[in-house]
Amino acid sequence: MEAAEKPKKTRNLKRSDNVIPDYDYLFAEDSVKGGKVKSRFLRKIVKMNVWPLILSSLVYILQAAPTWAMPLITADIINVATSAVNSAAGVTGEVWRRIIIDSAILAVLLVQNVPTTVWRWRITSKMLRSTSAGIKCSVIRKLQSLSITYHKDMQTGKIQSKFLKDTDSVDTLFNLIVQSVIPNIISVVISAAISVYKNGLVSLFFLLVIPCNVGLTFAFRKKVSMRNRDYRLKTEGMSMRLTTMLEMMAVTKAHGLERKEISSVENSIRQLTGSGRRMDNTTAYFGAWTWVINNLLSVTCLVFCAILALNNVIEVGDIVLYQSMFTSISAYVSGLISIVPQLGTGFEALNSVSEIMNATDVEVSIGKYDIPTIEGRVEFKDVYYRYPNTTQYVVQDFNLSVEPGECIAIVGPSGSGKSTIMNLIIGLLLPTSGELLIDGKNIKDLNLSEYRHFISVVPQNSILFAGTIRENITYGLSGYSEEDFKKAVEMANLDEFVKDLPNGLDTDVGEHGDKLSGGQKQRITIARALIRNPRILILDEATSALDNISEYHVQKAISSSIRGRTTFIVAHRLSTIRDADRIIVMDNGVAVEMGSYQELMDKKGKFYELKCLNDLNLKTAEEGLA
């Protein structure tokens, strides 16, 4: 069989497979003064959106102009009216002219608020939505680029919490900066400038607002940060606990452990609830003190302005102006202070997402060999492998040369290194030392994403998703012929059971394929592998969990699928590998024997012992079932 063409790639797929473009640099850590390492996320994201931010800020000044004009115009009208009442001339035409002009200006400013508000929201919405999508896509690409060892170490529930909750909190952080922080700062500056212009003495009093609120923020900052971090960790713990509960549902029910499981999850919920209440209490105290302090200052400002008016330092109408300006400044500063807890949540979420984005256990294909096709020649040269942060080698001094089209079986007790060798061939793991050559090229120099287009894997545990049989077989293929599909179905021996299903190949398999038997699921997995027409086929204990009848059908499917391609079989039942060209016997990471089935049986060494033990176990199991 000729190697099938690789699935068509979309534009720039090669780049997106190997690089995390656009937004990954936002999370990159840099050394800063004092030897500390920080991501400088805010500086980078502001720089990236500098022109939309400038434009939205300018539009905001127009949008919020009525807020600043209202106190000025109100004070002017009051002063004009007061002067006219107290004047001997009374209400003159000039008085009415000024009132009409003030009213017209205010009306124009109020009406223009509608188009400027819509304009600003369009600018900010485009910027925020685009940035949000970019960050989420970057996290997804990063997760796809991380090695299999990272995913094994990081629990699924924790990753889900980081992606679903923490990326939203990072979005909220930038949203707060754009929609609250920047507008409030602009408003404080403009309000303060108006106050200084009108009366420098009164404006000095306004400055009390800032140190009081800043001092309050510093007083609560550490506690707010601590509460946010604790709540984030408890949320991740709850997510992990829920994922485990769902995965263990069948085992839980089979052993009558529902109450114990409920109690365990309830305990996690109680911890999360307690952490949330402590965070809410801290936020409540912070908000209450902010409100009290700013309102006390507002009352003080009113009394202070009244005293100045009584002493003819300012006009009566200016009391309204300064009180309004003080209230505005106080409200803007309070607005900035009140979002400190939310900013704390956002920064904590940023730290959480950064844990993924700054992970270094990454598969990199930039600058590696692109592979138009492969023959299937595999060679191990003095290969050793040990997992990161360990000293024990799980594969040692492994040497093997495999020609295209050969069938190699690897056997041995649990923990002997069989699956590790398979993962090395796939490229999920790379040799700690030694060389693994594919068609004469070191696997470390290959574009692994391209290389894997020519590999198919049938794992021990069938991995199916909720969908039809057809969708599971053609997973990830952008185009395939019906002839190729039917051929894969035939070779995997699916017709034997598909003909009895209500919708044939379009029958839904349920979540994880739960509507099918183990043998049926395994044959679908084999069909998924075969439709890709791989040059290297890996069968990792594909029949170990099956009964005799299911094993017969799966073994029949395997026998027809290995012809013409390099095949590696990790076998649990040793009777299934009689026809392998060579059998490698592993023990404690070392290849202790190598040869054909008959050669190893005649030798009566380690393989012979494993075969006798295997037959005994099968006989015992059959007697137990009988």
List the helices and strands and how they pair.
Elements: H1 13-18, E1 30-31, E2 37-38, H2 41-48, H3 50-63, H4 65-86, H5 93-111, H6 113-145, H7 148-153, H8 156-198, H9 200-206, H10 209-247, H11 249-254, H12 258-310, H13 316-338, H14 340-357, E3 378-385, E4 395-402, E5 407-411, H15 418-426, E6 433-438, E7 441-442, H16 448-451, E8 455-458, H17 469-473, H18 482-491, H19 495-498, H20 518-530, E9 536-540, H21 548-561, E10 566-570, E11 582-587, E12 590-595, H22 597-603, H23 606-625
Parallel strand pairs: 5-10, 5-11, 8-9, 9-10
Antiparallel strand pairs: 1-2, 3-4, 3-6, 6-7, 11-12
Helix pairs in contact: 3-6, 3-8, 4-5, 4-13, 6-8, 8-9, 8-10, 8-13, 8-14, 10-12, 10-13, 10-14, 12-13, 18-20, 20-21, 22-23
Structural write-up:
With 626 residues, the chain is an alpha/beta fold. The chain has helices at 13-18, 41-48, 50-63, 65-86, 93-111, 113-145, 148-153, 156-198, 200-206, 209-247, 249-254, 258-310, 316-338, 340-357, 418-426, 448-451, 469-473, 482-491, 495-498, 518-530, 548-561, 597-603, 606-625, and strands at 30-31, 37-38, 378-385, 395-402, 407-411, 433-438, 441-442, 455-458, 536-540, 566-570, 582-587, 590-595. The strands form three sheets. Strands 8-9-10-5-11-12 form a six-stranded mixed β-sheet, with helices on both faces. A hairpin with a 2-residue loop joins strand 6 and strand 7. The radius of gyration is 36 Å and the shape is elongated.
